Amino acid sequence: MKHTDLVALIEAGVGERGGSWADLGAGEGAFTLALADLLGPEAHIVAVDRDAGALRALDGRFETRVADFTRPLDLHDLDGVVMANSLHFVRDKRPVLDAVRRMLRPGGRLIVVEYGTDRGNQWVPHPFTYARWETMAAQAGFRNTRLLSTIPSRWLGSMYSAVSLSP
Ligand SMILES: C[S@@+](CC[C@H](N)C(=O)[O-])C[C@H]1O[C@@H](n2cnc3c(N)ncnc32)[C@H](O)[C@@H]1O
Fold first, then answer.
1. Parent domain of 72
2. Where residue 132 sits, what CATH number does that domain have?
3. Residues lining ligand 1, CB < 6 A?
4. Could you read off the pLDDT of 130-163 as tens digits, one per residue?
5. Which pTM was predicted?
6. Helical residues (DSSP H) of the chain, grouped into ranges
């Protein structure tokens, strides 16, 4: 996907410029870069991934942290978190969602980007439709979940973005 398409996918969920954000499962940082465009130079973004090699693409431009986001991350009072095609690697998402909720300030934003299917495969093991996401996010204490955008995808039919607020 082109950078401008990635920006468009999350733009309506980002809100104010600046602030402190994390990209969990950032990989080589496609959405870290999209976020950086939307938040501007005042923002602080930490890119987290368990794959040190992938994060190297962001060295010198962002704070990077080699870590497993299913373990405690010591991130607090964030204005926002992006999880783009990373939550589908986790079967039991509730503990991760609880941890993400706790790392956000009240009213902080969680943006997810996911494939629009509940049926996984060996590369995308545990994806979830937007309908399921609404339920999962509410059960984990997030509120005001809304769909931002849906686009066709060569893999698994479609991809969507959604935003939820921390209570
Ligand atoms: C499909 S890639 C998506 C990368 C990027 N967010 C994007 O959309 O271009 C998924 C990334 O999540 C990372 N990842 C998966 N599970 C993780 C975990 N438990 N902790 C940290 N990173 C994880 C993988 O290493 C990989 O870089």
1. 3-165
2. 3.40.50.150
3. 25-27, 30-31, 49-51, 54, 68-70, 84-86, 89
4. 999 999 999 999 999 999 999 999 889 999 999 9
5. 0.98
6. 3-14, 30-39, 52-55, 94-103, 130-139
